[in-house]
Amino acid sequence: MDASDMGTDLERVLLSEQQIADRLTEMAGEIDADYAGRDLLLVGVLKGAVMVMADLARRLHLPVEMDWMAVSSYGAGTSSSGVVRILKDLDTDLTGRHVLIVEDIIDSGLTLSWLLSNLRTRGAASVEIATLLRKPEAAKVEVDVRYVGFDIPTEFVVGYGLDYAEKYRNLPFVGTLAPHVYSD
Ligand SMILES: O=P(O)(O)OC[C@H]1O[C@H](OP(=O)(O)OP(=O)(O)O)[C@H](O)[C@@H]1O
Ligand code: HPA
Ligand SMILES: [Mg+2]
């Protein structure tokens, strides 16, 4: 699937499949080096982080475990409500574990800031964040992020796990939507 398959819904491609792949390879290299000799637990945040988790994890040379949480702050809209709900909690006890939260995007920062404090109360040896995308100018709270793929402008983006009203997650690239998609 490429941009032309999107018909008129897509405004432009922000990050191509190749750019994403190259950056994830670099991030995996840093993570491999930083966590060498440690037992790492990757925590993916459903649903948006599915693609990042799958592609980042496959580039790591460390023996990792993977677990998932589902939290929601957006519902079907395009701005964060600020109210974070746990829809599915971890199956893993974090006591003494090195935890790396894997996310698709940090926008207002409200979701990750909340999640970071929540996981830090669970006795982990360390809790860090890896995110593919971050919107620095949209931050409502500052979040201490260890690994960032790309800083992007304050525009609503879709693809590579990111949705608008649950659609577009399966695009292999990250793009912006044409305004008519929001108003129709
Ligand atoms: O920094 P914030 O403004 O809090 O936004 C970031 C969060 O919003 C999105 O999740 P969403 O709640 O849309 O759930 P989803 O992953 O299932 O789409 C995204 O995947 C992040 O988790
Ligand atoms: O720009 C975005 N796109 C899709 N989902 C999101 N969740 C937070 N920001 C975004
Ligand atoms: Mg969403």
Automatic annotation (TrEMBL):
All copies of domain Phosphoribosyltransferase, residue ranges: 15-164
GO molecular function per UniProt: guanine phosphoribosyltransferase activity; hypoxanthine phosphoribosyltransferase activity; magnesium ion binding; nucleotide binding
EC number: 2.4.2.8
Enzyme class: transferase
Main subcellular location: cytoplasm
Cofactor: Mg(2+)
Keywords attached to this entry: Cytoplasm, Glycosyltransferase, Magnesium, Metal-binding, Nucleotide-binding, Purine salvage, Transferase
Catalyzed chemical reaction(s): IMP + diphosphate = hypoxanthine + 5-phospho-alpha-D-ribose 1-diphosphate; GMP + diphosphate = guanine + 5-phospho-alpha-D-ribose 1-diphosphate
Coiled coil: none
Name the UniProt record assigns to this protein: Hypoxanthine phosphoribosyltransferase
